[in-house]
Amino acid sequence: MPLGEGLKVRFWGVRGSISCSGAEYTRYGGNTSCLEVTAGGRRLIFDAGTGIRPLGLDLARQTPIDIDIYFTHTHLDHIYGLTFFAPLFGKGNAVRLWAGHLEPPYTLKNVVSNLMKAPLYPVSLEVFQARVEFKEFKSGQQLACGEIAMRTAPLNHPNGATGYRVEFGGKSICYITDTEHRGDGPDKTIVELCRGADVMIYDSSYTDDEYDRYRGWGHSTWQEGVRIANAADVGTLAIFHHDPSHDDAFMDGVAREAATARPGIAPNGLPRVIVAHEGLTISP
Ligand SMILES: [Zn+2]
Ligand SMILES: [Zn+2]
Predict the structure, then answer these.
(1) What pairs with residue 148 in β-bridges?
(2) What is the Cα–Cα distance from 104 to 230, expressed in whole angstroms?
(3) I want to staple 168 with a disulfide (CB 3.0 to 4.6 A). Which of 7, 140, 153, 270 is the partner?
(4) Quick one: which of 27, 183, 188 has its CA closest to 11?
């Protein structure tokens, strides 16, 4: 997308856990987590699920590319698109990879290089032609990319995950996946991070009805998303990280129920709840 001035997010992958294809996924999409956030002439990528492959093809038409990719965490569905990100194969490109959830002995570099190791993968890190930098931080730290400010916070997920709040020009988008609610009221860390945000993109893998079967897997429900969005006075809740068992017809049902649970238009002009789909761009 052209680099406009205002804060904007485009969804290149909205699926959780594993990518899926088929006629029943055409409208919401089957690629796993990948967001493109643009503001003030900069572009940030969040997560490298399979959605990063088409994004990379889109970007590869321009050279040179200088870009930052921020990981929520390194579970496969958020990282296995990385090795198909075309700009990594372009000489003269610069790609910085950021993660805030890893504890020793893990580093982002050894996670990515293990992903590209025999017998899991045919070629190693050295295949990348771009200048690749691995950057570590600790969830909770503040970050900045040009004039874009970012706050981060740890999420409740096996092996850790980082939630992000991106701010530019008085607008804010929060990216909160993957995370599991604890059942003792809205997660205070998330409420604090997302307080008053224009948009909160939230791990809505399950419905409340399904959740009991998946305790401990590290995911949440769209209904919990509504409770947190209300507690944090968030403008728009974006339902995200759809379970692969939730096809288009199921997601239409979620959209209808969610619109009843959180009706109306937010001060940012967007509906108070939306269901993210591949290709959707929103600008609060
Ligand atoms: Zn995930
Ligand atoms: Zn995960």
Answers:
(1) 145
(2) 36
(3) 7
(4) 27
Compute the distance from residue 205 Cα to the ligand 2 centre, in Å: 11
Using alpha carbons, select from 165, 98, 173, 176 the residue that is nearest to residue 138.
98
For residue 50, report the distance from its CA to the centre of ligand 2, in Å. 14
Where along the chain do its domains lie? 8-282
Q: What is the pLDDT of residues 170-223, one digit of tens each?
A: 999 999 999 999 999 999 999 999 999 999 999 999 999 999 999 999 999 999
Is CATH 1.20.1250.20 the right assignment for the domain spanning 8-282? no
Q: What is the DSSP letter of 145?
A: E
Q: What is the β-pairing status of strands 142-145 and 131-136?
A: unpaired
The three-class DSSP label of residue 35 is: strand
Q: How many angstroms is it from 245 CA to the middle of ligand 2? A: 17
SS3 118: coil
pLDDT, tens digit (0-9, with 9 covering 90-100), for 165-177: 999 999 999 999 9
